[in-house]
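Summarise what follows for lecture notes:
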Amino acid sequence: MDIISTGETLVLAGEFDVRSTTEVRDAIHQHLFGEDRDLLIDITDVTVIDHTALRVLAAATRLAGRRGRQVTLRGAGPAVRRMLHMTHLIRVVELERAARIA
């Protein structure tokens, strides 16, 4: 798992599964406890994501809310969206709205 922090964005690439959740959770916590701004997590280049990873994102969203901030997920493809719906985590995780092309 590659994690790049660019200001208020964490860009994740690679396999986001049970083996990488600790690393991602640490990066999220570092941002939420070290920065006074919202967090955008870009998963566009994530090749694999599992239920454990989605729970990390949901927990980060709840933690940010308690701190008066918001976590938004960018680049969630159809498979990730289906998993969010199936696990009911769609009620917790905020997805970035895609820009409409005129």
